[in-house]
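input
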Amino acid sequence: MPAEPGTVRPGGRTARVRAAVLRAAGDVLAEQGFDRLDLADIARRAEVGKTTVYRRWGSVTGLVADLLADMAEQSLPRTETGSVLGDLTANADLVRRTLADPRQGALFRAVIAAAACDARTARALRRFYEVRVAEWAPCVEQGVARGELPAGTDAAAVVRAVSAPLYYTLLTTGEAPDAAAADRAARAAFAAAAAGVYVTGDPAAEPGPSPA
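output
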C-alpha cells in the first residue's frame, strides 16, 4: 500500500525542501488561519516548485498533518526534576510558554479550529498529542515507582490533566494562560493523582475464590 502523502520522512535535499515548506505552512497558519492555506502559495513562499509540493503532500490537509508530525518531533523533551510535582510543573510551564508564543499560540488556535471540521486534521492533531503525552508519561510512571503516586495510576491521564485547563483557558478566553494558571494546573493534577483519582482498576486486588 502506498504511503499517505506527507507521511514519508525524507533526507538530504528533500529534507531541506520539507523544512522550508513546513515553515511556510506554519507561517500562513499563524498569520491567516487554516482557510487561507493554499499549496501554490506555500510553494511560492518556500521557493519550491508547485509540482514538488503537490506531489509530496497532495492536499492542504496532508500538509497540515505533516506539519503536526514535525512539531511533535521537534518539541522539547520532558524535564525530569526528581519529583512528580516538579515534572508536572515543568510540563505545565512548557505548555504555557508554547501557547503564549505569538507564532506557536496562533498556530495551535488555527489547527484546533480546523480539526473541529476536518477529519484528517483532527486525526493528525490527536497523533500530535499522543506523541507528546507519551513523551511525558514516564515522569508519572517514575513517580509511581518512587511511591509518590499510587500503583495503577494512569500516567497518560495525569499528563492530559495538566494541559487540559491551560488549553481551556486559551479557547474560552482567547488569552494564553499565565504562570500562576500553569502552576495551579500542575498542582491540581498532582493532588488528584496522589489521591488516587487516576488509578485504573484495583492493582492490589487478588482474584477471589471460585464459586462452589
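quick obs: Confidence is low (pLDDT under 50) at residues 1-8, 205-212.
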